[in-house]
Structure formats: C-alpha cells, structure tokens
Amino acid sequence: MKYGITLLCLLLAGFSGISAQRQVPEDIDIEQIRKLQYAQLAISNLYVDSVDQKKLAEDAINGMLEKLDPHSSYTNAEQTKKLNEPLEGNFEGIGVQFNMLDDTLVVIQPTSKGPSEKAGIVAGDRIVSVDGEVIAGVKMERDSIMRKLRGPKGTKVLLGVVRHGVRGLLTFNLTRDKIPVNTVDAVYMIAPGVGYIHLDSFGATSGKEIHEAIASLKEKEMKSLIFDLQMNGGGYLGAAAEVASEFLPSGSLVVYTEGRTSPRQVLNASGGGLFRNGRLVVLVDEYTASAAEIVSGAIQDHDRGTIVGRRTFGKGLVQRPVELPDGSMIRLTVSHYYTPSGRCIQKPYVKGDKEQYGKDLINRFDHGELMHADSIRLDSTKVYKTLVKGRTVYGGGGVMPDVFVPLDTAAYTPYYRAISRNNLITLAALKYADESRKDIKRKYKDFSDFQDHYQVPQALIDDIEKKARDKGIKPKDEAERGETLEDLRFMLKALVAYNVWDRSEYFRIINTRNDIVKKAIEVVRAKD
Fold first, then answer.
1. What are residue 133's DSSP bridge partners?
2. Do residue 469 and residue 321 come from a single domain?
3. With the C-alpha atoms ordered 31, 37, 42, 48, is the resulting torsion angle positive or negative?
4. Catalytic residue among 290, 335, 341, 504
5. Of the candidates 31, 135, 165, 528, which lies 20 to 30 Å from 406 by C-alpha distance?
C-alpha cells in the first residue's frame, strides 16, 4: 500500500513541476487532471482484484468522449490502422480484391500492376495457404487472413493457389508492395454527352482520381457530368477542397472552419480544375455526409450545379486526430465547418445522447421526410442566400437538394429482403461467376454485349429459392414471388458483372433502376 501511495505522490509532484515550467491555458483545471491520474493509479495499485490497466485507461477515455458530441471517438491501435487505410490512399500487401466462398479465399480481381498480377495470379484463383499455413477450410476470420496477406513493402510471402483446370497446387513467391486504394468506384458515359462518376469516400488520392476521371470522360466528348455522392460518408477535409476545385473557379471559397480554440481556417478552390464549365448535377441522399456535404454545399452556394436527391446526413463538425503513444487515437471535434454562404449544416444533437442522434434517419423515415418533400423540417431561423443567384438555402441540418427524389419504400418485397438478409444472393452470384467466368468472357465480346444480351439462368434462380426454402423463407403468394424473381434477376446480373469485371460495370447496371440517377438524367436533358 505504501508503494502505491509513493507512486501517487511522485506523479502529482512531477505534474506540479511540469505545470510550473510550462504555461497552461487559463481554462485548464489542473486539479481535475490530477484527479484522473490519481484515480487511475489508485485503482491499479489498491483495488481488491487485478485490473487491465490498458482497458481501464481506454474506458476512462471513452467515458469522457461519450459525454461530448456524437462524432468525437476513440480507437485502439488496430482499429485506428483499419480506419485510416481506406483514406490514406494505399496499404502494403499483395494486391487482390477477394471474397470468401465456402470458407475459401477467391480472387475477384488482382490489382492492376500489383504484386499478384505481376506474379501471374488471375481472377478465380483460390489462395489456400500463406507461407505454408493453410487458410482454406479452417474457418479463419477474414481479418486474420488479411493480416497474413498484408505486410511491409519489400517482404516476401509464399502463396499456395488452386486454379480451375490446373492439377495440383500452384505456388507463387510474391514481394509485397504499396497497393493503391481507389475511392472512385465508377466512371463511364451514362448517356450521349453525359458522364458519370461515383465517389465512395474522400481519401488522400480522391482529388487526383477525380481529375483523371474527368479527363477520361472529356476524351469521350463529355459535355455534362453527373457526380454521384450517394452513400458517401466523407473523409478528409483537404480532399473535399481538392475535389471541389475541379468544378469551381480558382479562388472560390469552398469551406471555412472555426472552433473555440481553433482559429478560422479557409479553404479555397485551387487552379487546374477540368470541369469548371458544363452542366453539373450532384447526387446526394440521407447517407451523404461530412466532406461530401462540403462539396455539395459549395456547389449549391456558388450556383455551380444542381443538387438532386434527398436531404443529406447533416455532419458539420470537424474532428482532429490526436495520436496517442501506443498507436491509438482520439478523434476530437475541434470546430464547425461552414459552407460559402455561411451555413453550418450540422443537425441538432444533445451532448451525451448518441442513441437518439443515431435514430435520426429512422425518425426522418417515420415523419415521412424521405418520401415527401413537404414533410422536411427546415429551420426558418437559419436562412441563407446562394452567392450568384440569391436562392434561399437553409442551415441547421444537412444540404437540402434543389430537386427532391422520394425514397421508394416498395422497391423490394419482404420475400426478397429476407433472401438478401441471409446473404443468399451475394453468395450465389459469387459462386456462379467463379464457375462461369471464362464462359461469360468467351460468349460476350465486351461488357456492353453482356449488358444488352445476358440473361440470368433459371437454374441459378431455382438454387436460391431452394436454399431460401431450406431456411424457412417463402413468399406469401405467387404475385410476391413473381415480383421478387424479377428483382433477383436484376441484382444477380449486376453482381455477376461486378465479379467478372469490376465495380464500374456493377454501377452501370444498378443505375438503370436508381431513381435519383434517372432524375439526374432528366435534369441534364431538360436543360438541353
């Protein structure tokens, strides 16, 4: 016990010395910081049972953050690495897109010019061992497999591969390398003269990716652009400014941020944008958030394009990463961001009540907002004007689109949703594509030929229905079954396209039924 008290005294004396040497902000209460340190040491040294000191510290951090805004958060070292990789633009590994089929890793696509492609690994290969350790048929977690495949650039890894039509086990000795993580999902001409880009998130390379995507579409004589930010949850603030710079005149205000201790930071559009003229339509929905709202709000405030869809999520808070010595991180809200007209689009919240904040989208649905524009609750005390045409826009809860598109609540039957929830569609498509990849590529000269002529085989539908019956999933009547089978064929075709080609081809099929995309095409054509 004396030992524990001695430690406490040393710590408090040391802290007093530090505070005396360094200037501490006036609103920092040193006594409260001492109290936290005292409590940690008291519990660690005096508590009746042994305690996990790391967990004790993490619980204390989480406890503090839970009483703040809904977006301040803590992640341990492993979680931090996982969260950062999609945004940093690359990771180190072997470079494959894969999925798990019957407890076996199946390669969907090797990354272009990555280690796997250079070594000769092809789509459809099954990686069954890593450095002699079997990973197939042993019910290994996906994260565990990824950890074995990834590793520092320059390190070697020996893969055991099974390939259709080839006897025995193939071995590949790969050297790991930097693998790019692309944030652009789809780039194609959706209609004559109309380009389409879908951006999944705002990462370190998003600005460069969008620049290259626009350049490729302009080579195909693009005059108008549909920029899809549906389901885009945001990312880096700087990436938002880079992307917006492709559409706004150089020097235009994109966003500014301000906080209690964070000085005002202004981000303007830089030079070199490729689509500062031409018709622009931006697609948003209730999951469009953060950096995606910054771009949407800037384009709307400058009257540069038309926003089509549904009111966005409403995240107007900026988090600063605070790195801790063990690799863990606190993402602490330090400021609000404001669109060029001065709007803060953060939706209301009560500090410490993350549960209610998380129910916002459910509440929107219950209030009818997602189906009816006149059910949207706009804050009449936060009215702003766009900077060119002087149109009225609102703050206090997301970006309201210029053209509203209601959510189709009857899009899928209960029978279809039950099949989907049990993952029967995705697994069936993966297995079928894996077995039929070569036949499909041989039968259809390119994706356009596939899109125009491919029909999902009835045997694949029958197999899904049988597996559904085995799980007790049945339609209520033949009418529901007929409607479900039509949707099944459509989704299966899109998933087969993804597994045989890539995500861009998946979107080319899916978008033919997306109401927001279809409305965007109408908006573009209406201005011709």
1. 130
2. no
3. positive
4. 290
5. 528
Q: Report DSSP state, residue 412.
A: S
One domain for residues 283 and 173: no
The residue among 338, 370, 404 that closes a domain is 404
Question: Residues 6 or more apart from 275 whose CB is under 8 A from it?
Answer: 214, 218, 225, 246, 247
Q: In this structure, are 134 and 237 located in the same domain? A: no
Are 147 and 37 part of one and the same domain?
no
Rounded CA Rg of the chain: 27
What's phi and psi for 32, nearest 5 deg? -70, -35
Same domain assignment for residues 189 and 277: yes
Q: Which of 177, 185, 228, 301 is catalytic?
A: 301
Query: Tens digit of pLDDT for each residue in 41-69?
Result: 999 889 899 989 989 989 999 999 999 99
Tokens 């899928």, residue located: 412
In a domain, 69, yes or no: no
**d(C-alpha 240, C-alpha 297), whole Å:** 11
Q: How confident is the model at residue 231, as a pLDDT?
A: 94
DSSP secondary structure of 181-201: ---EEEEEEEETTEEEEEE--
Q: Which comes out higher in pLDDT, residue 214 or 34?
A: 214
Give the pLDDT confidence score for residue 89 in this predicted structure: 59
Q: Is 301 a catalytic residue?
A: yes
What is the domain range of residue 10?
2-51
First-to-last CA distance in the chain? 82
Pick the catalytic residue from 177, 224, 228, 315: 315
Instruction: List Cβ<8 Å contacts ≥24 apart for 408-414.
Output: 408/515, 409/371, 412/484, 412/487, 413/475, 413/480, 413/483, 413/484, 413/487, 414/476, 414/480
Tell me the whole-structure pTM to 2 decimals: 0.84
Tell me the per-residue pLDDT of 135-194, one tens digit each, with 9 for 90 and over.
988 888 888 888 888 888 999 999 999 987 788 899 999 999 988 778 999 999 999 999
Structure tokens at 359: 């129910």
Please report the DSSP string for 372-400 in residue order.
-GGG----TTSEEE-TTT--EEE-SSSPP
Active site residue 446: no
Question: In the structure encoding, which two tokens stand for residue 277, read together?
Answer: 């003229």
User: Within this chain, do residues 386 and 420 fall inside the same structural domain, yes or no?
Assistant: no
Q: Are residues 239 and 275 in the same domain?
A: yes
Tokens of 332: 């602490």
Q: Is 315 designated active site?
A: yes
Tally of domains within the chain: 4
Single residue among 350, 377, 404 that ends a domain in this structure: 404
202/256 same-domain check? yes
| CATH number of the domain enclosing 244 | 3.90.226.10
